[in-house]
Amino acid sequence: MSGPLSASERRDRLRLARTENVGPVTYGALMDRYGAAGKALAALPHLAARGGRTAALKPTSIAEADRELEAGERLGAVLITVGEAGFPRPLAALDPPPPVLWLRGDANLILKPAVAIVGARIASAAGQRFARALATDLGQAGYVVVSGMARGVDGAAHEGGLARGTIAVLAGGVDDVYPPEHKGLYGRIVAQGCVVSENAVGRRATAKDFPRRNRIISGLALGVVVVEAEQRSGSLITARLAAEQGREVFAVPGSPLDPRAKGPNDLIRQGAILCEGIEDIVRALQGPAGFVAEPQLDLFEDPERDQAALDAAADRLRGRVYARLSPTPIPRDEIVRSLNEPAPGVLAALVELSLAGRCELLPGGLVARGD
Amino acid sequence: MSGPLSASERRDRLRLARTENVGPVTYGALMDRYGAAGKALAALPHLAARGGRTAALKPTSIAEADRELEAGERLGAVLITVGEAGFPRPLAALDPPPPVLWLRGDANLILKPAVAIVGARIASAAGQRFARALATDLGQAGYVVVSGMARGVDGAAHEGGLARGTIAVLAGGVDDVYPPEHKGLYGRIVAQGCVVSENAVGRRATAKDFPRRNRIISGLALGVVVVEAEQRSGSLITARLAAEQGREVFAVPGSPLDPRAKGPNDLIRQGAILCEGIEDIVRALQGPAGFVAEPQLDLFEDPERDQAALDAAADRLRGRVYARLSPTPIPRDEIVRSLNEPAPGVLAALVELSLAGRCELLPGGLVARGD
């Protein structure tokens, strides 16, 4: 946590985050190396060319970034970037963290201890009643309630949590109200709670935005409660992400005769904490903190050494790294092990390949071929 | 397992089992020592007097035993005693096993692999439907369904299990039909299944008979499934007994909004296997067998040693044992440890005290003062 960010550095961070082929892993690696987004932006074309890109990589322009910043300002939203004091530590500890977040409403809420409630869109009346009551109890116990503003359980959780603070994490831009019948709820959350999005202001959510959104829901929370969920549903993906992030997973049991109980019951069988109410959550969260910061690696080589020799070595290594990639994601560690090369060099090669669009750096330490 | 039992030895076993102050622990200890019920009956008055009884202990008479045997015969019921070939091994392995059992219906059923289903008397329609369907599935998977013929879940389990074999364990005599509306069900179980009771023919159940009945339900089964149960209900006691007996405990989850789900949900939290259907049961029971035979101790002293000296020593020890007892049950092992005396001598003293009505030998290795 350093001092306040200058307006131009914040804009440069937004530019870097919005640049083609710069995902959150690459963003983090570049910021680690260059320390400031402006320097990273300047290095981008060179790095992308080293990675094998033929057409020049054009960073997002100042004008484009200004357009997004002005659109956010008109909404009264604020932009925070990873590393700033206002950025939630549990979220910053993710591997990788989201580079930037738009917040509309009470930006302080995202710094408070939070619990996520997720569940079926087509939820039972009983499930929605339970979610609403649990959210109210969580609020009274001092927890902010995080959810995804979807129909069903999500909406009920926000309603129940509204009085003590609730956070809606959207897959589209911070102004992308969906479903339409939640327009009123959205307005109340902006007024009393906080709406959060990693995405650009004005963007409509597409299918690929939901997994990143779900990572933020679980990432903001100490634990995730699954109220109702059919098998293979988005709520179960959020639960899996939560477990991977070291968050507690809670599941509300239900009758085997109700297909919406299948998801939570399966989670309990797999070790989730059976949740009948606030007591189960408070008991579990009073234990040790649920998240662990990933150690940060210095992904790049030492600049003091002979540059030409290093470049040639890096080129050879990059080729060997690329040869290991396939469209099926594999752990980056596996490449390090199979090549028997130091991790920083391998990861620098992957960052360059990713900027060239030749690979994709995925959450959870995975990488896939991108061309 | 020895050869077939003579009619007079069977009658003597019934007499011993029905004699005042002879509970199942004492019965087992006496049979271990004397090998035949007739010899044990002959020794009873002397042992009781040693234990401190002033009025003579009168064993149940031949005439009384004959009356019970004839009443059972009129019902077409058969009496089996622990140690006979027809006595279920899982039940014989209990500490202590029930000394005698009346069986009305198909006596072979109690030798087959069985699963118990228990639950709330005031069960939901969904709970009863689930119990019935699960019982049918268990029957098709080759398991006999054991329950207690109570209203609600028990009745539904018997109905579902009837076609492939079901066992009703009654707290009263084998002819004590309760509740009255289960008269028709009772008749069908006698015709197609088996009714079991440890109690005397013609006896009405009283409150104190239910814990012993519940031990037989779980003792006959490889596992016990709890379908619906409020907190502090009889079904949870059966589940606890099942766990103590090394049986698998299964619990069917339910919504926290349903008070009848509280019991099963708590059991899951405590480690019971979450059960959504037959698969969960088959998967668990295909593991190692669920019950373990307790090693049998020889509770009495070596008859070769000098009798007068032994008697005096036994009297002193009996007094020290008695001094340790209180109305609150304590483990018999604890007395052995605290007196630092060999276990067989301490347990012989307890048997004599129990025959005198001065202590009560309880299941699970416990003993309480009885006067």
Helices and strands, with pairings:
The structure is a homodimer of 371-residue chains.
Chain A: H1 7-18, H2 24-34, H3 37-50, H4 62-74, E1 78-81, H5 89-92, E2 100-105, E3 114-118, H6 125-140, E4 144-147, H7 153-161, E5 166-169, H8 183-192, E6 194-197, H9 209-220, E7 223-226, H10 234-244, E8 248-251, H11 262-269, E9 273-274, H12 278-285, H13 307-324, E10 330-331, H14 332-339, H15 343-355, E11 359-362, E12 366-369
Parallel strand pairs in A: 3-4, 3-7, 4-5, 5-6, 7-8, 8-9
Antiparallel strand pairs in A: 1-2, 2-6, 10-12, 11-12
Helix pairs in contact in A: 1-3, 1-4, 2-15, 3-15, 6-7, 9-10, 13-15
Describe this structure in words.
Two copies of one chain form a homodimer. In chain A, 45% of the residues lie in helices and 13% in strands. By secondary structure, the first copy, chain A, is of the alpha/beta class. The first copy, chain A, has a nine-stranded mixed β-sheet with strand order 1-2-6-5-4-3-7-8-9, with helices on both faces. A three-stranded antiparallel β-sheet of chain A has the order 10-12-11. In chain A, strand 11 and strand 12 form a beta hairpin. In chain A, helix 1 packs parallel to helix 3 and helix 2 crosses helix 15. The first copy, chain A, is globular. The first copy, chain A, starts with 6 loop residues before the first helix and ends with a strand. The relative contact order of chain A is 0.13. Chains A and B meet through helix 6 and helix 11 of A and helix 6 and helix 11 of B.
